[in-house]
Design a protein that fits this description.
This protein is α/β, with parallel strands linked by helices and 235 residues long. The chain folds into two domains: 1-31; 32-231, Vaccinia Virus protein VP39 (Rossmann fold). It has seven helices and seven strands, in the order H-H-E-H-E-E-E-H-E-H-E-H-H-E. The chain has helices at residues 5-25, 48-59, 75-81, 132-142, 171-182, 195-203, 212-216, and strands spanning 66-71, 85-92, 102-103, 117-123, 143-154, 187-192, 225-231. The protein has a seven-stranded mixed sheet with strand order 3-2-1-4-5-7-6, sandwiched between helices. Helix 4 (132-142) crosses helix 5. The radius of gyration is 22 Å and the shape is globular. The structure holds S-adenosylmethionine.
Length: 235
């Protein structure tokens, strides 16, 4: 139906008002097709998912003790474990990493003894592993009875094709994968994020661009980072 001129102008003004309200609301989410960052925000400030990861490790810092294992570099164990860590190994899948004290593919037979570690900090690893069941069974094998696995994986996030990222995890998916080896009653999953920070994460925004209230609000429908504590039962 053709609009009369006066009606048409009124509708256009109403439309513009709607657009400017939307623009104001989305101001910090940055307009335009491209995001503010193609590095998860790490080139702009503190990435949202790393903030959530810190919250999780802070909550379980008491588990990071004794003989610990971390992937790629020892930063989280050193920061959150502190003096409670008596020995620290760093694992890498190949010999390209000079910080690695262990080189092994945990989906294949390897020489790491069973029951070696009190704590394994496994952040941003599982989404790169095709044979998830195998690596989780292996993480369980190399933990001491009573030892703890702390896992963090992305849910809503940018995908970087050059980083060999295979998967994204929902809380239910991560719980199932871990429960298979550790038993459901030994797995506790935490999901961090909300619709605003999930949008921010994929737009390349960083923690500094949100209020603490906005970042800390949790909406189960929009997990940015999914984390879990899995306890190896004492036999
Ligand atoms: C992207 S890095 C993440 C490391 C770091 N912890 C972080 O939070 O960003 C992934 C690490 O997982 C290791 N990794 C990937 N697949 C593996 C496998 N099958 N066995 C052992 N390590 C593996 C890689 O060697 C690398 O050290």
């Amino acid at each position: 139906m053709l609009l009369r001129p006066a009606q048409s102008v009124a509708r256009r003004v109403r439309g513009l008002l709607k657009i400017s309200r939307a623009t104001a609301t989305r101001g910090r989410l940055a307009l335009g097709i491209k995001p503010m960052s193609y590095r998860w925000g790490e080139d702009r400030g503190f990435p949202i998912h790393r903030y959530y990861l810190d919250c999780f490790l802070d909550q379980y810092a008491r588990d990071i003790r004794g003989h610990c294992l971390e992937f790629q570099d020892p930063a989280y164990v050193l920061h959150f474990g502190g003096a409670a860590v008596t020995k620290l190994d760093v694992i890498h899948i190949d010999d390209s990493n000079p910080r690695a004290t262990l080189v092994a593919d945990l989906t294949k037979p390897n020489e790491i003894p069973a029951g070696l570690f009190d704590c394994i900090v496994c952040t941003h690893v599982l989404h790169m592993v095709y044979e998830l069941g195998k690596i989780v069974a292996e993480l369980h094998r190399i933990l001491k009875p009573g030892g703890v696995l702390l896992v963090a994986v992305p849910c809503v996030s940018m995908w970087e094709p050059r980083e060999h990222e295979l998967w994204r995890f929902t809380p239910e998916g991560l719980e199932l994968v871990l429960a298979n080896a550790f038993g459901a009653s030994n797995v506790t999953v935490h999901a961090f994020g909300n619709s605003l920070t999930a949008a921010g994460e994929i737009r390349g925004l960083v923690v500094e661009e949100f209020t603490e209230e906005e970042v800390r609000y949790r909406d189960e429908h929009f997990p940015v980072e999914v984390c879990a504590r899995a306890l190896k039962a004492s036999s």
